[in-house]
Amino acid sequence: xxxxxxxxxxxxxxxxxxxxxxxxxxxxxxxxxxxxxxxxxxxxxxxxxxxxxxxxxxxxxxxxxxxxxxxxxxxxxxxxxxxxxxxxxxxxxxxxxxxxxxxxxxxxxxxxxxxxxxxxxxxxxxxxxxxxxxxxxxxxxxxxxxxxxxxxxxxxxxxxxxxxxxxxxxxxxxxxxxxxxxxxxxxxxxxxxxxxxxxxxxxxxxxxxxxxxxxxxxxxxxxxxxxxxxxxxxxxxxxxxxxxxxxxxxxxxxxxxxx
Length: 259
Hints:
Elements: E1 2-3, E2 8-9, E3 14-15, E4 20-21, E5 26-27, E6 31-33, E7 38-39, E8 44-45, E9 49-51, E10 56-57, E11 62-65, E12 78-81, E13 86-87, E14 92-94, E15 103-106, E16 111-112, E17 117-118, E18 123-124, E19 129-130, E20 135-136, E21 141-142, E22 147-148, E23 153-154, E24 159-160, E25 165-166, E26 171-172, E27 180-183, E28 190-194, H1 196-201, H2 206-220, H3 226-234, H4 241-252
Parallel strand pairs: 1-4, 2-5, 3-6, 4-7, 5-8, 6-9, 7-10, 8-11, 9-12, 10-13, 11-14, 12-15, 13-16, 14-17, 15-18, 16-19, 17-20, 18-21, 19-22, 20-23, 21-24, 22-25, 23-26, 25-27
Antiparallel strand pairs: 27-28
């Protein structure tokens, strides 16, 4: 373990093996840090924060700060961060609120570019990319392998499906479909087909990508309403599980989805 002389580490913090805490970092009470995690200079980690192994926090990250919610009254809430995540400069991550379950969660292998923000009670999966200044409001769920483009914002209580791609400068006020490219300003965002290149890069079989394209055409390009399109798409015998994920996401949407 390496702690710079200018860093402040509370006695109530639990620090793992081979952790590096750089100059002017502040690690608060009730913080747990897993092995081999690195904090560059000027990182602030607030109380009730649990961090896993092999994470890297670049300078001026703010981790586990109070939720930016007027209803928050100082009650103890938490944030949990998994393993092998990278948080670039000026990333901000807030704890949960009592009204939203009291917990914010981030799983594994995610990249948070500079100035990105995760608000209270949001839940993020694994292998997600948050580009520069991408912003999640409270109570947002982001599933595995998705990308939120630079300077994009996701409205509170929205979901971003697995392998979704949200283009830069977009404003998402309804659910963003899995496997699909979503781009556009507030109330003008639209879908632009299956994220084929992203799925190829993630190693999905070509058969799955082709079936997703066929399902997409039935669901969104057949001039059927949502109910009729779902009936039609279920009549096909699909072999790829990804199509079932897409159908299930649509059927479970509470806010509606961008189309």
